[in-house]
Amino acid sequence: MTETPKINDFVIRFANVNGTGSASANFLFTKAIYRMGIPVSPKNIFPSNIQGLPTWYEVRVSEKGYLARRDGIDIVVCVNPQSMANDVKSVRSGGYFLYDNTKMLYQQFIREDIHYIGIPLTKLCNEAFTDARQQQLFKNIAYVGALSVLLSIEFNVFEDLLAEQFKGKEKLIPFNIKALNLGADYIKENYNYPLPLRLERRNLIGNKIMVDGNTACGIGAVYAGATVVSWYPITPSTSVIEAFEEYSSKLRKVKESGENKVAIVQAEDELAAIGMVIGANWNGARSFTATSGPGLSLMNEFLGLAYFAEIPAVLIDVQRTGPSTGMPTRTQQSDVLEAAYASHGDTKHILLFPSTPTECFDLTAESFDLAEQLQTPVILLTDLDLGMNDHICEPFNWDNSRKFKRGKVLHAEDLEKIERFGRYLDVDNDGITYRTYPGTHPTKGSYFTRGTSRDEYAVYTEDGAAYERNMRRLSKKWETAKNMVPAPHFYQKENKSKFGIIFFGTSRYACEEAIDIMNNQGVMLDAMRLLSFPFSQQVHDFINSHEQVFVVEQNRDAQLRSLMLIEMNIVPQKLVSILNFDGMPLTAEKVISEVDKVLKKELSQLN
Amino acid sequence: MTYLRPKFRHPELEKNKLGYTINYYEGALSTLCAGCGHDSISAAVVQACYEMNIEPHRVAKLSGIGCSSKTPTYFLSNSHGFNSVHGRMPSVATGANLANKELIYFGMSGDGDSASIGMGQFVHAVRRNLRMIYIVMNNGCYGLTKGQDSATADKGSISKAGSNNRFEAIDMAALALELGADFVAQSFSGDKTQLIPLIKAAINHKGFAFINVISPCVTFNNNVGSTKSYDYVRQHVDATATIDYVPPAAEIRTSYNEGSSKRVTMHDGSYIQLHKLENSWDPQSRQSAMNAIHEARNRNEILTGLLYLNSQTEDLHHTLNTVSQPLNTLNETDLCPSAEALNSINNSFR
Fold first, then answer.
1. Per the domain annotation, does B271 fall within a domain?
2. What is the pLDDT of residues B3-45, one digit of tens each?
3. Does residue B148 form part of some domain?
4. Chain A closest-CA separation from residue B203 CA (Å)
């Protein structure tokens, strides 16, 4: 069973028990590969639980820079007896199974077609450490040490990383080095190394960073000038607010007094969270909340109010697997329709679809400008995979001369020049009217904000004609928005194929990989990545200029496809769905096989 | 519907210190039923703001849904108003207040809006000690949907349709007191002389100021057998005291008898002078106030007046330690860290 060496191309999965300190050891492993200049992409596959249940961490290493998840696990590191039966099965034929052999492996876990690498992790750590917590914790570091020898990870990279991690707590470093060496020495003494699957230093990362999307959203909101933040804890969105809080406490505190240039409130529920956001925006502060599907359901009523009363609001929805409580710790893109038309009556909302942490940062910042310019809610649809997993991406960028676009707001001096202020008067004929903040002027500019119908001067009315005029103006505003939201990204300057493919958000990784592989096989697809809703003319044109368009999304009901059919004049048969909804991030294999099905059918019809 | 209001005002109508006459504080014509208790409360707000020399545009009026929530239209037309969604006014008020700590926030609510659909938000606004004046216009019924019992209707109270309410009532004042509110008052819409000084003191209070006002529904809950009718309330009201609100450094015009009055001083030196005080009750003791409410309830009486005040209160901005400048006035320079700071953040992810 000797394999030819394969450099920088494998998938490794760690099988741990949650709450045992494996996360930091696994992260150390990933970070070391990143530091060796090799593209790497980790995925946390974790339970909705705090302690004691199986949790996995899957890392893909790809010289070609493919960062999507891929099927076929080359190496499993299993330190969890609970999940061992399935973990053994999950290794591809010819792959490696690394386990703690302090206790003998059950006979039924022995497969003829894989390699077993036993390391007495428990025994080694029990002998080397006296403290029970350390004995447990350093088992994780010890297997990372073993992998460093098996996969040729440069040891000094670990030394650098540990020095950075334990800055100020330097006495912890020798313990970690000792644990790394326990695993490394055992491999050197007992096995041939390195494995045919191994790493070699490259320079493929450049100045890219490795960060999760939720942290990027939190930092984006700090840069965008959010001052009032209200939220209710819910996986997988919680770390958006935690990041916002962390960076606010570093960057928004007055040094001398310790006072905060921000107010963060943990609300009693999602209804109150979005209510506070609306109250603060109404009063001229930039304000946002973050939630996931169940929270979005609860926020519907308020989103309708913000749409109709025309109040800016920024909502970051980190999507998870629905419906209902669904799979709270698995990913999906299944809030598209819910977000697009949230609330009763005729409502529509601006959606933004980031695909990388860099875009999480950029689009979060932009969402505040759009919300204030359009005076309406903007919903950023990210997902658990993007939000909670680390991704290698372009560094964040900010122009110091950038100004916040606060939209059409009249101040006291503006009001002086006006005969009569009409809050809902379409002065500029773009559907966007002027607003005032409370407290602006003693006698001019006050008005009543309400969810009931009103005329152009914000006076309550049940006159059908006035209601209809207002609803039509909101439609006009929607048309204006089409040219303000981020444009789609095209992967070709001009069309090369009669087939097109549309995707958004984290489907990007698998789709880009699939397109690359198919191109190499001579199958050409024109590609468009959506960044926003409403759809602009460009989206329409792309679909119209192809005979068949694949629409890739991570939900059962083809929600994006439905949205396109509702909003644009398209023949339904033109849009072919590629759907992934098992809660795991999409793979290129899946995309390719779905495309192949259609192409094969096409070919057979030709014959 | 009160559809007639003379525009004529006496030319020598008295002006307050800002130079405004009282009509400057009025709002649009009320569309509530003639004789509705809520209109008296609106009028009391107008009077209190006029006498307190408040700039109307420095007030924000917020409400939920229901008859009570319509009232912000009927006072202070130069203030911004926000008629939000049912039971959710407290969260909107919280966001608004956090954005700008310098305005005065009036939350106008009802028993349906606060004791049923909005109970969760009411409770948490009290807990957070949001600085605002929170008035519940409490009539024990749903007026706008034609008279169903509300959660504050007393057990045994008879509705206009003749049905007997079989559920326990939620006592909003006792609840606020229990939740830690530092300003709790109860009044009757028919008692302006008591309500106006209470509103004034509430405006001056540095935290959450709660006033539960029994405000009879003339159309759906003013019948014999109702415990929230004008007649019943007038017969059962037990004023703790008559009340004067005395602004800081103002001269005391009347003299009070020692022993029958109590002075409660507020944070800025203003004070509330209470007369005819029950000897057993201390408005600066939460425990004593709670006892007084329970004892009155046992006597089938509605205790009105200032029930509890802690002037050493600390509001939400204090707890969150926000800067003194309103957050909505901060700009890019104040809020946006530099590109250089972002570079060092980038480096931490390498």
1. yes
2. 556 666 677 789 999 999 999 999 999 999 999 999 999 999 9
3. yes
4. 17
The closest CB to that of A211, out of B60, B78, B349, belongs to: B349
Distance (Å, whole) CA A374 – CA A433: 9
Q: Do domains A211-393 and A489-606 have the same CATH topology?
A: yes
The CATH number linked to B274 is: 3.40.50.970
Complex prediction ipTM: 0.96
Maximum distance among all Cα pairs of chain B, rounded to whole angstroms: 77
Considering the domain boundaries, does residue B333 fall inside one? no
**pLDDT > 60? residue A1:** no
Which sign does the torsion angle of CA A341, A355, A531, A451 carry?
positive
Domain spans of chain A?
6-198, 211-393, 489-606
Among A259, A285, A396, the residue with its CB nearest the CB of B323 is A259
Scan for tokens 């004529």, then name that residue.
B8
A41-77 pLDDT, tens digit each? 999 999 888 888 999 999 999 999 999 999 999 999 9
Identity of the residue in B78, B94, B323 whose CB atom sits nearest the CB atom of A443: B78
How is residue B93 written in tokens? 């008020």
User: Best of A289, A311, A440, A446 to disrupt the B interface by mutation (most B CBs within 10 Å)?
Assistant: A446
**Per CATH, the architecture of A6-198 is what?**
3-Layer(aba) Sandwich (3.40)
CA distance B206 to B132: 8
Hey, what CATH topology would domain A211-393 get? Rossmann fold (3.40.50)
What's the pTM value of the predicted model, to 2 decimals? 0.96
Q: Is the peptide bond preceding residue A323 cis, with omega within 30 degrees of 0?
A: yes
pLDDT band with cut points at 50, 70 and 90 for residue B279: low
Does residue B99 sit at the A interface (CB-CB below 8 Å)? yes
The number of folded domains in chain B is 1
Contact residues, chain A, for B78 at CB < 8 Å? 442-443, 446
Q: What is the pLDDT of residue B6?
A: 64
A262: distance to nearest CA of chain B, Å? 7
Q: Quick one: which H or E segment has residue A143?
A: helix A132-150
**Candidates A260, A277, A446; nearest CB to B323:** A260
Set of chain B residues whose Cβ sits within 8 Å of the Cβ of A443 = 57, 78
Distances (CA, A) of B197 to B26, B52, B192, B350: 18, 10, 9, 63
CATH of domain A489-606: 3.40.50.920
Residue B43 within a domain: yes
pLDDT digits 0-9 by tens, A200-248:
999 999 999 999 999 999 999 999 999 999 999 999 999 999 999 999 9
CB contact (8 A) between residue A252 and residue B339 = no
Using the 8-state DSSP alphabet, how is residue B251 labeled? P
Provide the residue range defining the domain that includes B147: 22-318
Between A and B, how many residue pairs show a Cβ–Cβ distance under 8 A?
A: 227
With an 8 Å Cβ cutoff, are A283 and B342 in contact?
A: no
Distance CA B204, CA B210 (A): 12
Q: Does B21 contact chain A (CB < 8 Å)?
A: no
Neighbours of B298 (CB within 10 A): 8
